[in-house]
Design a protein that fits this description.
The structure holds two protein chains of two kinds. By secondary structure, chain A is mainly α. Chain A is 84% helix and 0% strand. Chain A is built from four helices and no strands. The chains are: A mainly alpha, B alpha+beta.
Amino acid sequence: MSNRKISISVSLVSTLLILGYYLVRLIPMFQQSDLNSGEVFRLAGIVIIASIALNIVGNILTMIVINIIHAIQTQSEKEVRMIEDERDKLIGLKGAQVSYIAFSLGVLIAMLTFVFGQPALVMFSLIIFFSLLAEIIGDLSQFYFDSRGS
Amino acid sequence: MEKRQVRNNIRTLRFHNGEMTQEQLAEKAGVTRQTIIAIEGGKYAPSLELAFKIALAFDVPIGEVFSYEVEGK
């Protein structure tokens, strides 16, 4: 598995964890029809901050683990070459494009719920949900592009 | 218009350059080994700059590394 794939996996797992946490907290609110703005905004804040923090910490830990494994395998102190070349950038851009399209569709669906009479909080919750889902779809598409070549 | 695709002789050139490894070529061209694998397998067409860098790594003209051939030939 390439370093790039490991990095994408870390991002994917962290986003899946955050999405899981978000849904576990949000679904009971929906079931009890107990959507209050304070709770929903607090949850959204936690999700956004956790998403940023987990990605940063995850990437740092991944780099450390990759370097340790590399040092053990090669028995040298030479650092792993973590370069991002033109193909990596292209795959990243394509992934971002897929993610952007998925998020746009999600926002459209969220807005439609508002148009059809749902409260604004439902729309807001759905936008947060689709932003996480779009990130997951973006990561998965990067996996696909990486194994396809570009 | 007939469909064409970029073909390459990287595998042969590596062989003629003392069995140069993909990792060594990647280091010389300043890319990852995965990119060299993708180019060699015809899955990825490199930019002009990278194509020149690869040719430079083998010390041959770019035309000896890459060709633009009709698909299926």
